[in-house]
Amino acid sequence: MNTIKVRQLPTLSSSFSGLYHLNLSFNPLAVPLSSDISKYSVLTRLDLRSTRLSGSVSPIFSSNSSFLEFVDLSDNQLGGQIPPPPSRTQDSWSYLNLSKNKLTGSIPKEIANLKVIKTLDLSHNQLQGGIPASVGNLTSLESLDLSSNKLTGGVPESLLKLPSLRFLNLSSNSLSGKIPQGPKIRSFPAAAFTDNPGLCGTPLPPCKKVF
C-alpha cells in the first residue's frame, strides 16, 4: 500500500506498517496530532493540511521520522512551540509547511538541522523572537515564508546569502533595522519586507538614521 486518503486517522497496525504516503487533507478530523505518526517508520509524505488538527507538532520531529520528505500540516489549530529538529534525523526533509496554525515561541536555531530543506513555510502563526542566523546554513533552501508572525530584531545577513533562495516573505512582522545589502537583495520585491515598521533600506525606503 503506497497511498491512502480516508476520513479519520488510521490506527497503527500491521496493515499500515509499510505506508509511504498518508494524505488526509481537507477532511474534518478535529483530533490531536497523535504520537502514533512517528511510528510510521517508512513514511515519506505526510499531508494533513486543513483537517482541524490540534495539539503539538512535536510528533513529527521525533527521531523516528527520518524518512519523511514532505510534511504539510498547514491550516490547522496546532499550538505550542516548534521543537528543535534532532541532529541527523531530518536529512531527507525537503518540504515543511506549518503555516496558518497557532504556533508560539521562537524559531529554534536547530532549524539548521533540516539540511536539505527546499521549502519552509512558518507563516501566519504567533512566533516571536528573532530570525536565527542559523537559517543561513540551509544552503538548499529555495522558498522561505515567515510572514504574519510577531518576529523582532533584524534580518540576518546570512539569510540573504543563501545561494538557492528564490522566494522570500518576511512581511507583517515587527522586524527592524537596515536590510542587509548585496546582489541577492535585488531579486526580492519590497512586498517581501513590508509591514515591518522599523525596517528600512533597499528595496524599502532609505533609512532615516544610521545603523
UniProtKB/TrEMBL annotation:
Keyword list, A-Z: Cell membrane, Glycoprotein, Leucine-rich repeat, Membrane, Receptor, Repeat, Transmembrane, Transmembrane helix
Subcellular localization, as worded in the UniProt entry: Cell membrane; Endomembrane system; Membrane
Gene Ontology CC: endomembrane system; plasma membrane
Entry annotated with the keyword Transport: no
Entry superkingdom: Eukaryota
Membrane-related topology note: Single-pass membrane protein; Single-pass type I membrane protein
Family, as annotated: Belongs to the RLP family.
Listed name of the protein: Leucine-rich repeat-containing N-terminal plant-type domain-containing protein
Organism in which the protein naturally occurs: Selaginella moellendorffii (Spikemoss)
